[in-house]
What we know:
Elements: H1 2-13, H2 24-27, H3 32-40, H4 56-73, H5 79-86, H6 92-110, H7 114-119, H8 123-143, H9 147-213, H10 226-265, H11 275-279, H12 284-336, H13 341-447, H14 454-465, H15 485-507, H16 528-541, E1 559-564, H17 570-581, E2 584-587, H18 588-600, E3 604-608, H19 615-628, H20 638-653, E4 656-660, H21 662-675, H22 682-694, E5 702-705, H23 711-722, E6 760-765, H24 768-786, H25 794-832, E7 836-840, H26 845-884, H27 901-905, H28 916-928, H29 933-948, H30 952-956, H31 983-1032, H32 1038-1050, H33 1060-1097, H34 1100-1137, E8 1155-1156, E9 1172-1173, H35 1198-1247, H36 1253-1257, H37 1259-1272, H38 1292-1380, E10 1386-1391, E11 1394-1402, H39 1426-1439, E12 1444-1446, H40 1447-1459, H41 1476-1486, E13 1492-1494, H42 1495-1502, H43 1511-1524, E14 1531-1532, H44 1534-1540, H45 1564-1576, E15 1577-1578, E16 1585-1587, H46 1588-1595, H47 1601-1613, E17 1620-1621, H48 1650-1655, E18 1659-1660, E19 1669-1670, H49 1672-1678, H50 1702-1712, E20 1720-1721, H51 1722-1726, H52 1729-1737, H53 1747-1766
Parallel strand pairs: 1-5, 1-6, 2-5, 6-7, 8-9
Antiparallel strand pairs: 3-4, 10-11, 12-13, 14-16, 15-16, 17-18, 19-20
Helix pairs in contact: 3-4, 4-8, 9-13, 13-14, 13-24, 15-31, 16-31, 17-26, 18-21, 18-22, 21-22, 22-23, 24-25, 28-38, 29-38, 31-33, 31-34, 31-38, 32-33, 33-38, 34-35, 34-38, 35-38, 39-42, 39-45, 40-41, 47-49
Amino acid sequence: MSDIVCRWLNQEVKLSKTVSPKALEKDFSNGFLLGELLYKHELQDDFGQFSEGRVSNAKINNFSRLEPTFQILGIQFDQNVAQNIMSEKHGSITKLLYQLYIALQKKKKSGLTGAAMQNMKSLAPAKLQSMKTEIFRESLKSVVPEQTDLNLKWVSEMFHAWFKQMEEKINRVQFENVQKIQKLQEEQRMQDLEKNRLGKRRQHEMMAKIQAAILQIPKALPNRTLRTIERHKMLMKKKEAEDVVNEIKKFEMLIKKEIEAKDGVSKVPITSQTTADLLSTYSDEEYMKKIQKRLAEDTLAREQREKRRRKLLLDQLIAHEAQEEAYREEQLINRLMRQSQQERRIAVQLMHVRHEKEVLWQNRVFREKQYEERRLRDFQDALDREAALARQAKIEYEEQAQKEIEIHERIAAERAQARYKKHHSMCAEILDHIIDFSTKVAEYRNLTHNLIPVKIMRDWKELFFSGKPIYEQASIDHLPSRFTSEQLVELSKRNLLDDNDYEEYKNFTGEWTLPEEMADSVLPPNNNILGHVIRMVNEKVHPPNPISVERQIPSFSTKGCMLGKTCSGKTSCLKILEEAFNIEILSIDTLVQDAIKAFLINETATEKLVEMPEKEDTEKESQEAQKTASVIRIHAPKEAQEEGDELAKSQSSQDIKITLSNRAQLGAKCEKLLKKGRSIPDVLLIQIMVDAINQVPEEKGWILDGFPMTINQAKLLEEALTIVHPNHQESGGKSSKKSTLVYDPTTPKEPPPPPPALDFAMLLDITDTMVLNRVMRERKSPAESSFGLNAKSPNLYDEDQAKAELLRDQIQHRILGFLDNWPELEKWFSEKQDILIKVNAEVDKRALATKVQEYFIAELREKEAKAKKKLEEEEEAERKRKEENPSPPPPAPSPPLVIPEEEKELEPPPKETKGKGGKGKAAGIGKGMKGEAPPKGKGKGSDKKTQGKKSPEEETAPPPPGPPPIKPGSEEWVYVDQPLPQVIPQYLVPFWDTIESSYINTIKAILRQIREERHIVFYYLHDIRLNYKEFLQRPDQKQEFVSQWQTDFNNLPEDLWDDEETKAELHQRVNDLRDRLWDICDTRKDEAEQERADIINETWLQDHLGILMNHFFSLMQVELTRFQDTKKLLQDYYRGMEGKIPMEISKRGGTRVPLVDLEEDYVPEMSSKIPIVPRRAPSPDGMISKRKVFPKRGRTDNCIDSVELKYEADEKIVMTVWQNANSAVNHIVNTEIHLRKVEEEKEKPDETKEKSPQQAAKGKKKKLEGKKKEEDKKRGKSLPMSPETPLVTLTPEEQEDLERTTELKSKIKEEYLTALQCEAQATQFRLELIKLKALAHMEELLGRAIDVYKLMDKWLGARYLAEMASVEKLTEVAHYHIETSTRIQNELVLSGDEFFINGDVNVFPNPIPPVRPPPVEKEKNTCLTIQQLNTLRKEFMEMAPRGYLGNKQFTDILYDLVTMNLGTNHLPEAWLHLTLLELQEITALLIVNSEFVDWRKFLLVVSQPWPLPSEEELLKTLKRFKKIDEAGKGKVTLEQYKQVGLWFTGDIDIKTPEDPHEPLPYNRPEHLIKFFFELFADFQKNPPELDYFQMLLYFACHPNPVEGVYRALSLAIGTHVFRKVETPVPVIEHVKNASYTDTATIEELPEVIEEVKEEKEKILVPEFLNKESISIPTLLKVFQGIKESQDNHRFFEEEKIENTFYEFFKKVYQVIGSKNLEPVELAALLKHPFVQDLILTYKEYKLPNLKGILHRIDQLLGLNEADLKIN
């Protein structure tokens, strides 16, 4: 059932904590999760008051609130159930949850809420239920123990546990002391044994020296009889008996010494010694002596007891007599003082009363003492309880602090890991891009023959610096409806390259830099008139919104914010600043609480609505403005209008309105959000903060405490205080939209950015560890103060504790939140606003406050200095303005043009090219319009005449010389700004947007196609180069002819080799073969030339050059289309100003640039839509001169000449198309000038007529009729004036209006034509640039193609010459063999252009070489050969399979081999000269710690030389063996052994002798490796197996025995054993292992005297090293102690070998602490004295040095040989 309930809670309900069946009772013991469960089912509305703690108060609070809800659901819930749940009784919570699950399912089916279920009950049961709830709460308090009692109980339990630990510790210390005593005793025994062992060793050495000095003569064996044998047995038994007696005596002496030592050191008996051990050692005589001694002691004790008994009886008798004497005296006194009966009664009564008084007094005193003791005891208990609680609180604080630090470290590690992963991914991505870039460069170097174009390299760099992959990720030829991530990357790459290409094209940079032909040309200036037109049209359609930089708040003295992590000291420093400088501290938490409190108390605000007298005036002015100016519209915000309407209504009703204050309204919103469990949004927080700032007095500054906390809050606060959006400067609205093609230099400047709202932002920098320490300190301080005498009230303490717990729970989230948000805030305050101040807060409170005050005072002074400087600047500007304008100028006559006020106020910005624009325009137009200069001059003259007709006086007077006329578009030019119909701007704005977008997108698409076309041509040239190279290397049939000739030549009979006629015939055949091969070479050359010609004449390259030409023609078409569309826009704009109807768009659609026809047949039908130019290749006869771009060749190449002819034809096409486009632009400009001139001449007759109002109304109609008539006639200016209209004299006002109109039309015409000519000049400039770039591009690609064709020709020639040279070499070889009369044994190979003789292939077989004899090893002085070693191994294996021989037997074997003839095959010749004494010396060197000789070690020593392995080499070899031994048996076969090998190999450089009959040199290392396997392997198993660990132990031997032991221990643990020698190693003679006899026990080891201690080596092992464990079996493999009784015989192999060190190691392991003999650390083992002594005295790992003996033999042999030579 628990699993079902847990699944329901975790998956369906989804509690905040995941519950498990094992911890179900513990998780629900405090009732918090039950409240959350009911809250999720909308039954527990007061869940916010539940506590998650596990203290008693929290449990009582939670279960008291749960009881009514359970009663509503009908679930039985009383104090017993609650007690069971709180005490975590098994099954209690499961039963309750099952009942709760059933009740909730019923509720879900019924669809009732908790409130509805409660309302369904009647009032009386509800009241009864509330009473029951109160009773339940009180009873629950009585059932649940208080938290203080629980804490006290926990403290007492902790003290009990501590007391038990101390008792255990004391017992353990006592036990360790006992063990130390035993250890000392054992060490003493070991020292005594060592002493005896040293004595025996000296005795044996002395005997050995004596025996060596005596000449032993072998005697014949006596002929033993039965009597002698019996007599010998009796003598042996007698000797054994005497030895036993002597040993018993020695043992008794040792026991006496031990008893005396025990009595002297300590009286503590040895518990491990048993009675049986003691009794088994005493003799009968000693036992009798002890019995006698014990009887004597008993007799003495009996006598002493008798003396004591007599003395006691005497003392008792004396005491009895004294008692009797006292009794007699008392009787006498009573008789003397006898009174009457009445007196006695009265005395008794008085004594009784006195006794009662004394008893009462004593009782009262005793009661007072009890009270005092109880008070003292209670006070002491209270103090102890408070001290225990304080200690407990301190422990909890430390634990909690450690947990918080661990959590923070884990989070910091996770953040560091995430940061590392991010950086790693970035670096990996950059590295991938670098590799892609490098491979792409290498690929294109191969494609372009190491000549990568600059443009392609620039594109790759752009992609690389932008982080885009260079290689294509996905295809985007056919764009799908949904893009993949790879396709999106490709689209972004394409857009990036398109934008770069367009910027280069637009700015004449990069690939579109002006060529040398246009180096002297001036760049086309900006069309200022067109820019002005675009700006004006946009402003009329989208009026700009003025940006107000006025502040909403008054200017305060100081404004700032203080930021930092929690507990960094912000609040403390701000309190000090508030007291010192009288500033306002604003904390967002406090402000939110105050706002909610203001709402709860219904805080109101009284507002007086003042009437606005200016309302009527503003309304009248707005009506007049709407009537007079229809174009200028005033858009009032809807919010302002609504506020105005409400204001008017409120004024009519009442003047004073009482509403909730702004703070209360904001508090209501906050409370509403908090009740719903939501967080307060940033906008609402900013409103609360701004409202609080507005309440601060103007002369008082303010500082924000810990606000803003996020970048969004910072931006919203900046916007609220400055009324300027932070992103307004980066991205404007529709009104700030600017054209990318042209710009207006008269555009008003944007207002400067306002200063930041805050004067400073101070950061108190502190580390996370310091924050955690301060939080824990703050949590500790209220806990400590609560236990003191001056404790706070319970309510205040609970509040402080709740705040501390809340801060502790949230500290990690606050730190993380600050770390996440601070980088953006730091960038905002430091880079964007430059107001950040960083202060190190890891100091004490006083130092931090001092630092903050210093920074604050510095900010105050800086602000005062800025204010003074600004005031001085304003005064200086006002003074200069008064000096420049001392008196107002006289009013000038109003100009006829209506100039908006905005343009008057704006100052034109400085322009770099002030006068160049006009000059450039005039020069450009003069060049492009050959015969149009005179009409332009006439037009200017007419304009001057019309401008001069202002008054009759001015007409008669000659014009005074004045400044030159102002050019249209210059800075001094005043643009025409007549009202336009609203329809025209609304039409022109989208029209210009279409022109601009179409122009940009089309150019990007064309440049993309040009870029891709270049890549295609490069790949094509690379492919044809590779294909042609493969074609040149195609196979031929020359080798067949060569092979056939060689076969015939070798098959020639031998008797004809020297015949001259035969040689002549053979020479002729060779010449015929050469001619045939040359014919094949000529044929292949002709085929290669034809292939090259086919490649050159292929139309692919010409077709793609035609496509490239069409792309450049499309660029010309785009420029021409833009010019035509711009002309249409200007024409419609200025005709609208003149009040004329825009002209209709012609059906022809403008001028079209023709494209090249790529098809063979010319299709004239297509010319109706897009004109097509036929592409015909010119004849070679028409070529007069070559172009300069192609270098001169030594010989004529018709294929390349045809390519150059085609290029010249294409060049002519490009020039023709460019001339046509240029002529079209000139024609459009001339046509427009001519039309303007015709319109002027047409309007001249109408100027002299009197225009009545009715005629003026019909003016447009007459103009249209006049246009239709002009079309029928050739010249419109020759129309006669109508005689019907009489001449009427004009009034001065009408004359002035007429002159103003004429002047306006002239200015419009001049402005329009200048803009059109400027645009034409720019178009012609770009057309010329496109023409030159097209030719250069074609030349580049064609030049690359010609280079490829020349390279192909070069390959062809080199190949042909190489083939001819190879044929010549073949001919020379053939002639040589013919002349020398020798066969050609090896194969002649003629492969392509190479000729060689293949030595691997023989035409006829070689003679069989002789068989080389096997290698034989030679004897070298005293070194044994491998064969001799194997012979000795086999003999020793038969005699002693286990490897041990007696020393005497070993000496006899060697002596037999030396003296008899057996040694000729077993030992070298030098060994046969060894004497018996030298053999005994060799045997003595091989005997170590026993009387046996290890013959394997002997063979290992005499097999030298071989490289002595180091410890590292041994460990590596062991690891290799363990790796191949997967089963872990410790043994390997021969195959595995060969795979692993040893530390040296058999691979040596062996020089092969030239004589095939001579054997190869002998490889001794290889045979040695095999011999070592045979030496140590077990051949009784099939296949033989080798114990590699035992073998490596033999190789661990070292000349220094201690070093050898450490090498063996390193092999045992598998790693290096670290040791540190404190004193140098003394020379210690080895001790036989025979002293470790069976008769001795561990307790009987002798003491070690101080003299031996001083001589021995002290080994110190560092504690942090040698932590590897080692077991006793492994240790016994290292230290092998074999008993003397195990001598060598034929049954030696079947006996069980017993190691004498087992018992010692067992005791050592128990002393160290391994009771069950489990493995222990090597460091602890090396510290034990027994192990240290064993390492120093163990000599089994000493490598014997036989070189001295063998060296003497070599010297003797050398002397003998010298003597023989002399004789």
